[in-house]
Each structure stands twice: as structure tokens, then as C-alpha cells.
């Protein structure tokens, strides 16, 4: 039946095992000497960890199934309406901006380090704007809505966020001379590690990585980023290297005496797909509609979430400053 074939294809697509299965079934292990062959065995790791995480949640009786359910619906929704847009934007940005680069990198280890640092800078810009510009927050908030951290959160994104993110990251890298071939390798590493740092406590309790945590972003750091606690709000924007968070003062360690509370500050039903996916857009539309004057309407779009035309602001900066003033604690 065609419907079963479609379900089978989607399952294989989710697990990312089609290329690996082809290599195993044909016995053509020479393919493992190629970039495509190596990545074909890495891609399935995150989906398989998602399944393991869910199984462990059932064993520990802490599955929070509504998180998996909503994130699964988001994954299916995005598969049908946004799967090729990000790829198209990356291709366009390379074509537009590569001729404008002042120089070009070469395939050496030191240029690769340079390229990754530049990529992280582009990621920081996109991610920072996603929290500080309300229009972009509408695209990013879907990812922060889940009230528990687990690997399924990796798939919780508004369909336009990837094109917006990749436009910024690709443009920064290409203008800085990063070769497209090197960029694609970095994007694969970044995507794989970026998925991994969403691992939940059922699989990795602490997720701090000891001394490595001084140089790279760990699951613990990213759990902090997903928290709505005033101490943790709007911190740890990087993905692998925590260089730019330290440079711009947005780095935050997890405190043992400050238990992370996941989700967003707006009252919402995290088990409702429509509220998770479109809730922030609806809230923004209501604020713009009721705001007096064009200036205030535009301010609601481009000022940070929590900005209010009366001056009664509840932005992350305001909330965090009030917390530090009342609690007398340090970051």
C-alpha cells in the first residue's frame, strides 16, 4: 500500500540510515574513505539516541510524553513545508557573496580553525538576534517552548528559522573567505553537535565534561540557555566553541543551587501544537494591532520580547538585572 511505503520512507528518512544500509548491504566499505560514507554512519546517531532517551524515560518513569508528541508533530509539519528552503538560501548566499570576499581560505588545519571561529560568530549573531528582536523570537520561540530538555527538542523549530539562521551564518562565513567545501563540513559538525547538546538527564545526568567545559559548550551550558530562570535568561548563545559568549559577556555556568526551569515566560500550553508553533506570532500580532501609533507598532516588532509601549518592560535584561539586584548574587 502506498501509505505504508510513505510511512516507511519517512521513518528511514528520520533515522537517516538509507546510505549506511546501502553500504552494509553491498559490502562496499571503500565508501567509508569518503566524506559521504563517513557521515552516513554519523547521521543516524542522534535519531537513535532520541529513541534510547525515550525508552530510558519510560524505564525511569520520566518520559514527559507531551514534549515528544509536540516535537514529533513539529518535525512532520516542517518536513512538508520547509525542507528545501534553507538549502536554497545557502546556495544563493554563496553565489551572491563569494565574489565579494577579500580573500579565500585554503584546505589546511589552521584555516579550518579560522573558519570554525567565523562560523561560531555567525551563529552567535543569528542566535543573539533570535532572542533580542521580537520578530526573530517568533521564529525561535518554538525551540524554547518545551518544558523538558531531551533530544527531540532538536526537531522543534519554526520552519522559517533555518533559512533565517543559515542566511546569516553563510553570509558571514562567505564574506570572511570561508570556502563552500569547508563550510559544508562545518555545517555537518555543527548540526550533529548542536543536536547532541540537547541530550536529556535520562541519558546524561550532569553533562558538564570537566575541564573541556572551559573551551566548548556542553549539554549543561545549553540547558542553561533553554532555562527561563532570571539567572540563566539570554545566555550561552554559541553552539560548540564558547569563545564569543565570553567575548560579549553572555557566558553563564549552571549553578547547583539554581534548578533549571525550562520553557518560555509567556503563559502557554506546551502540549498544544498550535500554541507552541504559532503562539508568539499571535501574541505579537495582538500587540501590534493594539499599540498606539506607528512608532510603537514598529517597536513591538523590532524591540526585544517583553518591551512595552508604556515603559513597563519585562525584557530579559530587565528581569535579570532585577534578579541580581534583589538576590545579591553573581553570574
Automatic annotation (TrEMBL):
Domain named Fatty acid hydroxylase: residues: 113-250
Domain of life: Bacteria
Entry keywords, A to Z: Lipid metabolism, Membrane, Oxidoreductase, Transmembrane, Transmembrane helix
UniProt GO molecular function: glyceryl-ether monooxygenase activity; iron ion binding
GO annotation (BP), single: membrane lipid metabolic process
Bilayer topology annotation: Multi-pass membrane protein
One GO cellular component, as annotated: membrane
Compartments (UniProt record): Endomembrane system
Record flagged with keyword Lipid biosynthesis: no
Transmembrane segments: 41-60, 72-97, 109-129
Predominant localisation class: membrane
The protein's name in its UniProt record: Sterol desaturase family protein
Amino acid at each position: 500500500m502506498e501509505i505504508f511505503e510513505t510511512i516507511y520512507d519517512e521513518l528511514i528518512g528520520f533515522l537517516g540510515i538509507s546510505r549506511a544500509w546501502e553500504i552494509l548491504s553491498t559490502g562496499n566499505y571503500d565508501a567509508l574513505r569518503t566524506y559521504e560514507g563517513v557521515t552516513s554512519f554519523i547521521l543516524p546517531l542522534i535519531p537513535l539516541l532520541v529513541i534510547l532517551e525515550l525508552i530510558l524515560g519510560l524505564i525511569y518513569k520520566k518520559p514527559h510524553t507531551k514534549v515528544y508528541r509536540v516535537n514529533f508533530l513539529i518535525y512532520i509539519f516542517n518536513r512538508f513545508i520547509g525542507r528545501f528552503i534553507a538549502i536554497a538560501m545557502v546556495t544563493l548566499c554563496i553565489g551572491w557573496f563569494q565574489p565579494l570576499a577579500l580573500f579565500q581560505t585554503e584546505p589546511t588545519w589552521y584555516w579550518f580553525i579560522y573558519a570554525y571561529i567565523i562560523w561560531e560568530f555567525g551563529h552567535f549573531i543569528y542566535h543573539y538576534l533570535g532572542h533580542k528582536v521580537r520578530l526573530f523570537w517568533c521564529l525561535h520561540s518554538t525551540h524554547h517552548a518545551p518544558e523538558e530538555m531531551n533530544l527531540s527538542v532538536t526537531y522543534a523549530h519554526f520552519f522559517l528559522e533555518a533559512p533565517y539562521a543559515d542566511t546569516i551564518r553563510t553570509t558571514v562565513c562567505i564574506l570572511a573567505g570561508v570556502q563552500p567545501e569547508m563550510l559544508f563540513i562545518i555545517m555537518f559538525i555543527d548540526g550533529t553537535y548542536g543536536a547532541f547538546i540537547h541530550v536529556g538527564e535520562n541519558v546524561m545526568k550532569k553533562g558538564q565534561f570537566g575541564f573541556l567545559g572551559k573551551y566548548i559548550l556542553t549539554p549543561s551550558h545549553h540547558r542553561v540557555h533553554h532555562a527561563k530562570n532570571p539567572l540563566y535568561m539570554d545566555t550561552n548563545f554559541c553552539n560548540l566553541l564558547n569563545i564569543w559568549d565570553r567575548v560579549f559577556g553572555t557566558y553563564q555556568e549552571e549553578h547547583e543551587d539554581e534548578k533549571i526551569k525550562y520553557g518560555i515566560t509567556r503563559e502557554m500550553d506546551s502540549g498544544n501544537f498550535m500554541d507552541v508553533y504559532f503562539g508568539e506570532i499571535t501574541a505579537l500580532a495582538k500587540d501590534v494591532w493594539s499599540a498606539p501609533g506607528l512608532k510603537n507598532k514598529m517597536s513591538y516588532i523590532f524591540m526585544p520580547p517583553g518591551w512595552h509601549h508604556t515603559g513597563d518592560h519585562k525584557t530579559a535584561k530587565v528581569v535579570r538585572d532585577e534578579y541580581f539586584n534583589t538576590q545579591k548574587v553573581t553570574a
